[in-house]
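> example.struct
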């Protein structure tokens, strides 16, 4: 399977690091340290994360993963209660769907440890999976669309 080259029809331009951080901010409703990172990226003009910021995004991803698993343990099937499978299977399914959706909609690069994209992309996937489990599919998709609209707006 080949990936289209930049400029080819159907090629999705992956988001900038700043856009990934903005996406996380919207998905979490500015309730994380991602807002501070975004301000720092804007202020300094940096296009990479510091080692501290990378660790922060990995920690953020782990925190949202843990919260999603706890919620799925208390509410079998997540908010939608569409299944009675184990919390681990609900979580795995949500993560897989989130990764597929972010890849399809945003072209989020997989396993690209370049200046913080991997850490931010990992956090974005797990935040979307968390929203799917905790808020349910409809509300999570509304939040996802709002985040996409925000990062795609001009300026």
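> example.seq
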């Amino acid at each position: 399977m080949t990936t289209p080259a930049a400029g080819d029809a159907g090629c999705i331009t992956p988001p900038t690091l700043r856009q990934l951080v903005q996406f996380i901010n919207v998905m979490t409703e500015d309730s994380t340290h991602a807002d501070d990172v975004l301000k720092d990226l804007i202020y300094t003009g940096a296009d990479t994360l510091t080692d501290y910021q990378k660790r922060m995004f990995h920690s953020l991803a782990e925190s949202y993963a843990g919260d999603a698993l706890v919620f799925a343990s208390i509410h079998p099937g997540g908010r939608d209660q569409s299944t009675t499978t184990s919390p681990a299977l609900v979580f795995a399914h949500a993560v897989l769907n989130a990764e597929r959706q972010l890849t399809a909609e945003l072209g989020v690069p997989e396993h690209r440890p370049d200046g913080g994209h991997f850490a931010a992309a990992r956090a974005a996937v797990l935040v979307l999976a968390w929203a799917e489990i905790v808020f349910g599919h409809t509300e999570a998709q509304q939040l996802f669309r709002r985040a996409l609209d925000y990062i795609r707006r001009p300026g």
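> remarks
The chain has six helices and no strands.
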